[in-house]
Give the backbone structure.
Amino acid sequence: MTEDQLLDLLRRCQHDFLSGGEMSHKLGISRTTIWKHIEHLRKLGYEIEAQPHHGYRLVSIPDRLIPEEIRFGLNTRWMGQKIVSYEETGSTNDVATKLAAQGMPEGTVIFAESQSKGRGRLGRSWISPKGKSILTSVIFRPKLLPSQASQITLMSAVAVAKAIEKQTGLSPQIKWPNDVLIEGKKVSGILTEMQAETDQIRFLVVGIGINVTVPEESLPENAASIHYKGAGGTVTRISLAQELLRQLEAGYDLIHEGEWENIHQQWQERSILTGKHVNVRCMERQIEGTVTGLDPDGSLLIRLDHGLTERVVAGDVVAVR
Amino acid sequence: MTEDQLLDLLRRCQHDFLSGGEMSHKLGISRTTIWKHIEHLRKLGYEIEAQPHHGYRLVSIPDRLIPEEIRFGLNTRWMGQKIVSYEETGSTNDVATKLAAQGMPEGTVIFAESQSKGRGRLGRSWISPKGKSILTSVIFRPKLLPSQASQITLMSAVAVAKAIEKQTGLSPQIKWPNDVLIEGKKVSGILTEMQAETDQIRFLVVGIGINVTVPEESLPENAASIHYKGAGGTVTRISLAQELLRQLEAGYDLIHEGEWENIHQQWQERSILTGKHVNVRCMERQIEGTVTGLDPDGSLLIRLDHGLTERVVAGDVVAVR
């Protein structure tokens, strides 16, 4: 934490120099220790100028999702109390699952600049070039039944949409169950994985990928980056990641306060499929009809052509018209 | 598999000697190889007499849940194609979970003579002295939603009850959700654990413990062993374990053929709580009323005193009268 305080001092001086003596005095550590911290921060990517007789000056901060930057100004109560970040890892969900199994608390957050084995829903892969996305996984330990896990997934989609709204002014929409789209193109995907007994969730890991500055040519046709959708230059990965963590905390607190209906409402307001005629592949069935909304249990409500309404609990949806 | 064939030859000769030459001829392997297999079988606990000029004779088989014995006369189609057994392990569910995560197929079965970290439902411990129980875990990969996982748990309780019925003639009952009782005392517990996405079970491990010859003094007051409940000497752990695997296969096949209603019925016929006045602690609520049956989704139906019926999806039930 001394390093966070040191960084804080440098940040507050903006572009002025701060003498080693003053820092040593304020933090109650030796000049040698300060030098060691400065060296470590430089390794993390902080550009820090050092001049004899003047001291140190923070020139630039790294564009990396590291704990030092995420924590600064995060302002959450419990989310992100523990942050682990990787330059590269297999999959942030795998790391989070391992840590959760070892007992790491709710609100532990994993970030990675790139993943070698990124996964999407239903065993699909999730590819993202280094340093151009937010790749994060959060550990939750909700007092919910396995059948209620979709509340956390749907809440997470709302949190992603609201974080993008707040940071960019754009209006993302949600495609059931949990894709977040801008102008019809997918900018974020969510993969929820859990370990549970029949009547108790042990823990749940929500993995979120957001394309921030991924070039269009590296993305599938139906995907996009928020940077190229009107938010160019106005949003950093760090500030968006922080807003996401704040939204996840707020949404999760709502669910635990019995306010699921509130999240349900927020989800519905952003639903891109409502009113659309769709085709759904659900387990081994094929359903066609018009989406009327979201059932409180998380399933999609579809009015079939002959008038009956079906609840779709899982599947892939294709809008027909 | 040569070892299984060799054992088979010895078994078929009952208590007669079988010459090394004849075995060598029938199995197409050298006498030295036969000797090596005999040595290995002895290490597993088989008592095999060897006499010059006479050959080998099977004197006794070990009372251990080892693949060699479980496979012999098992007669299943897919259950137990792969069997792994331990003298001692932490928990058979942990082993099964690890193997399932590595991709081991449905129907893989783990046995242990004892567990150092046996677990029951909701984080409780499960203690059993060495060699006196059936401790087993089975890997399933059902095409079900996480919310339907209880079908597999309830089916497993029916399988345990039917296996005990067939092997002992006793009439076990089921206490919701999945305890199996004889004369009101618990003889078996089931712990289902799963790894899942929100809309897809990845795999499910059913752990089953059955007290066979555990002495009463090693058991909690409300528990018993089937051996001391009228099945003394009439049932071996091996034959009971085999019957259990056959019943699990049959029950699982029924569910996959869309015959859940059949299992549901079999469960209800054995329900000890139906008609009883009970007190249930469910999440943070307390419910009191009369049990009217099992909802097809696996929840317990309780008619409250003022007439309304509540569905209890998880919890502990205490019969009041």
User: Anything to note?
Assistant: The helical segments of chain B are 2-12, 20-27, 31-44, 67-71, 92-101, 149-168, 237-256, 260-269. The mean pLDDT of chain B is 90.
